[in-house]
DNA sequence: CAGTGAGCGAGCTTCCGCTTGACTT
């Protein structure tokens, strides 16, 4: 479609000016990239960035355009009953930017969408197309390395938009929205508000929880072996030097047990025929070998070879930055971002280990200069793609440019310097020769005084050519592990040479539970399971930390008890969704869609509404799981965890975790690691003093009065009996309830006095008789009130509880109960007329904060609205929104569950939808596998 | 997690992936 563009660059001229007049607007994703590319393209091109995605489904109610507010599906942003059509709005923070792009486009004669060549990039391009509505020719421009040649080639070889790829992205987006926005509310209802669930975060949380479960179930095993130090100097070795350590391998040909021979339950694996030694066996054997003669029984030499590690991608960089620089995932990404923006490194969010040709030659150039030609392989090394679902839109993370700056040449310092150095070394090393050397295994035999043949082994490693290890050695997550460049030298020995055991000792070991995840190892695990993307790894950690699903203990990620409850709920009721294979299967489907071999709709339908799987099994859809089957989820059950070996239950309550033993309860510190909650720990918690404040003794009863914090806030209560010292609980439960009372609002837990407390405990106060019935005054759930039989009246102030007279009480009871809010409270502010109703609008203060009303309709002020500055227009808008939404007026008498309510609501809304839609939609029968365009729901703003 | 007697104007929380500033503490 577009005219041919200048085939510039052949003569090496710096300018790649387009032929003819006019300019092309090139849109990439990142501003830093735009800057670089602008330099490569030269005149005739204007390069701007989209700054990531420009549109998405509305995040919250405030972002839903008014005309969709009444729709049942508006909350989801996906019209689930209308072929899962998504509703897109321009992100609030992108409105100005989109306007700018439109203005730039007005001056261009061609639009080149140069977003990344992956699923998300293709989608960004499509959204740009939808939003900018260009009238000039549009082409898709793609490249996956940012070098002058690659960019110029890309500008000359554009293609059309790949709509199948866009559909695949949209399917992914819709699925994630449905999962997140349907399952999270289940957690709000069953566990705690503000929690969240999602395809990625829930699996990440589950991984951490499962690891903790393994730790809880773990029983260590003890095993012993022998460690010897042999002296080879009498063996005729030329240097005569040396002693070396060796470990006992077998006794009478039977291998000595090591850690991996044991199960996590502390038992020996049944398939192992090994010699398991305890302390006594080991010590006695050591005794019998004392003074025995030893000799070398075999020497085995093998060549050692090690190839360099692939250049960094996001996850490997995060891991090494964690191991070597102590940076969290987030910190590593922030430092990398700064390096990227200032032109020191290539893009840091990538799943590719590929180097561009120019990067390869830059690396080789550095190798030659810094290490010499001996370290340079004949051919450049190519790294195969490591990651299964890699989309490879970018290069590996490497120093930027066609020639690399050494760390010293950059002038950087601090973490930027250290991370650059890491990246630089890793990149250069990736183009160096293998390390080579020799590994040696020596076996040594000796016979004990009881004629047992004990065989020891020692291993050595000698590196004769360091190759890439000269530049870079990868760190390890296990601090005890040997790094790749670690040498262990053994004296040279011949078979049959006699050895003297200098030292021979029994050594005890215990198996260890699997280590907790760190940020870096969790990210690694997620990548291996194809969960999450380079741009999100750091924020996944952030999310599960924010939600309180995990907390950090040093670098370890420890799951909270809350996480156990949430994971328990998801596993039992949404098993498919937290299946580790779920995302991997999703990726397959998305790939099929992208290739045009599968359709999006049937798949989404089955996910949401249920149906037959390809295997012919029937599957319950998400809609039913969060709807009709909601009542199957027992909050009590999913929030309970047994404390191993006890009849104590750990329960996750709205106010944190607590222990429950037959109704006796005690708080559990929020930062207690679940694997530390043993029987002993639980007993200790029950025994602990609760930390209540003692106010003194009630002179009348002699009981101690304490102030504590409870479910309903601060309160005081009396202590009925001294806790029996070390004794058992009193069995005969002739329970006398202690008197309790909430503090008045005017009181404070820290300052409340014994006098206050006694007054509170004296309640309810008998005010007197009214109409022949006794009236009492007390404090309750809704504040101070009077009670007369079954009738009641609220009081104005707490003090009235003590001061009100029978006469005043009678007056209150003579008046009917106040209905609605108290009359005659002046409005906070008066506004103008509501154009819709013609009534005067006022702002009032209510139970839920300020709201605007025209006398008929009430609407709360939203976030960002202020009483003082609210204008008439905004007020009218709020009222209009409220009207649009509510059937409000007369509600059917509230049935039992939320399910029935939502079904009813959906019924009416669905009707509206169909009438509206029949005009707007229907006609353009959607082509399968094509993204929606003509009937797109958008926020025309 | 202490324990009691209204009637009412709710609204909001949340997902995953792309990307940076512009704000305030």
Automatic annotation (TrEMBL):
SMART domains: TOP1Ac (SM00437), TOP1Bc (SM00436), TOPRIM (SM00493). GO terms for biological process: DNA topological change. Its EC number is 5.6.2.1. The record marks 53, 172-173, 176, 181, 188, 349, 547 as: Interaction with DNA. The keyword Isomerase applies. The keyword DNA-binding applies. This is DNA topoisomerase 1. It comes from Nocardiopsis kunsanensis. The gene is topA.
